[in-house]
């Protein structure tokens, strides 16, 4: 007897950095073990699916990017479903379940998924399974794993109900046709397609994709003296548990070394967001003193001979490489030290079990090995559990193998979060900690995500400085720790700092050590327009800017853009770093800037009356002015800078100010702030 064919469901993903795609691929891999078949597509591939005619259940995995925007791959889809001419029953036939990914450090948590979910509901679509919202701040797997566990039962019930409905409809059609000449009407039969939503806590069998790993199968070697867990060592109960580990992802890439020479692809081929521009760095300025806690740099780029356009408040991307020494270390570990400049051909492995396997878009078909590791793969990425599972098979030491299994298991979820995710561990750290692990190049290509371009806020105005683009950044530092044997600088900020270091030279300045030079160094950039974080359209509208540290960057562009000596407008700037003293003083004198409030968070002076250290403290001292601008004059409020340590505190201060000045309770003040956000008069450009 032939077995029953697998039932189909449509699986769509919308990803920015690869997280949503990886989760969708996990769902696809598990589907077969549950007797189901996932028809998986990127949501941007609208020629390969049609929701208007889709009869089977739909599963959507979607991330969030920017300030609550859907990922770039979902923009066309979102635009299509937001068409206001669509009727409210446009998707009345559609059953779906949605998993949203986000980070609660940001104001609009999971807004990409929420936007799609809300609009599908407005157009009549119905849930067959509860929406899941996973938080990268605490660990996506805390929601993703149980959500996937419960998905299979919900899918089977939805498909069974669909089958019964189709059978009932067929029966009704048959009866209707046989009685078409009867003198009485056949009553229309209605069958509800609604399925009661399943809660995340409901139990769901995972099937054969999760392999129970027994302790007897592996000799666990661990020093008896270690009583505390670490990256390489576990303690009970994890060390004594049978493990549920993910199924081994199928291999699908093979790499062939070639004798022929050639040229590497142009960097512009690495992006899908439009055109990249290679532009020279014309000036570099160190904004902080040599003894400062952080090193802040300002770079000026020459865009005069390009078609690059921007306005103040926009951001742009810098295409950056991985650190040269880290690439060399990786080549050494892979046993390929002498082959970095050899050309390789990357293609799909014949006979792979991975459905729809294709060469990753960010990997060129032919290039040097060093080009792939330098420009294409994010070798600093935090390894996902699927990657750890694959690394188990490349590890010869029994104790190391067991520990890697623990870290990717359900029982070791807490260890994974603490020792890998929160510790910002990367592949090199793992290979250092587990020296018997020797992965292949093809495995790295399969599991390491695309090296992402880094985003920076524009700190200039094309009206004020035609043909020039400026930006400011701190050189990010990652200190050494228990899970990271060496300190590192940020991938892009470290590279930029090294790039311009030979071009800087000291000059006398009482405020800080400034170093400037002309340069012929070039970097590749491409635009990232910001649809909201712009100046008010009406130049007479007052606005307040809060820019601690390098958060001042876009506001310099704002003030340059509004620089009109004969025109008075009200604008206030609150900040703690003061690298633009002369320029800001000029804006004060000509009336472009009407108030400048400065504070220094690391001021250790022993004055009798301590000056405010943080911007939120200064805001409270200026409560009446803040309330007047926002409430009476319908002004704007802008925040740029660190999300984790500043933006929330500023929001709390604004709520307190509104409550005090309006003589209203805190809840009412919070509603007013929410209205300001909705009207796009309270705007944030923040990062964590």
Topology:
Elements: E1 7-14, H1 19-31, E2 36-42, E3 58-62, H2 75-81, E4 95-102, H3 111-122, E5 126-127, E6 132-135, H4 141-178, E7 210-213, E8 243-246, E9 253-258, E10 277-286, E11 296-302, E12 315-319, H5 324-333, E13 343-348, E14 366-368, H6 369-376, H7 385-392, H8 398-408, H9 413-421, H10 427-433, H11 441-447, E15 454-457, E16 468-474, E17 477-478, E18 488-489, H12 491-500, E19 506-507, E20 514-515, E21 522-528, E22 543-546, H13 553-561, E23 571-575, H14 581-590, E24 595-598, H15 615-621, H16 623-632, E25 636-642, H17 643-662, H18 666-678, E26 682-687
Parallel strand pairs: 1-2, 1-3, 3-4, 4-5, 4-6, 22-23, 22-25, 23-24, 25-26
Antiparallel strand pairs: 7-8, 9-13, 10-11, 10-21, 11-16, 12-15, 12-21, 13-14, 17-18, 19-20
Helix pairs in contact: 7-8, 15-17, 16-17, 17-18
Describe this structure as you would to a colleague.
- This protein has 688 residues and is of the alpha/beta class.
- The chain folds into three domains: 7-163, 3-Layer(aba) Sandwich (Rossmann fold); 253-447, NADPH-cytochrome p450 Reductase, Chain A, domain 3, CATH 1.20.990.10; 543-686, 3-Layer(aba) Sandwich (Rossmann fold), CATH 3.40.50.80.
- Helix content is 30%, strand content 19%.
- It is built from 18 helices and 26 strands.
- Strands 1, 2, 3, 4, 5 and 6 form a six-stranded parallel beta sheet that branches.
- β19 (506-507) and β20 (514-515) form a beta hairpin.
- α17 crosses α18 (666-678).
- It is globular, with a radius of gyration of 29 Å.
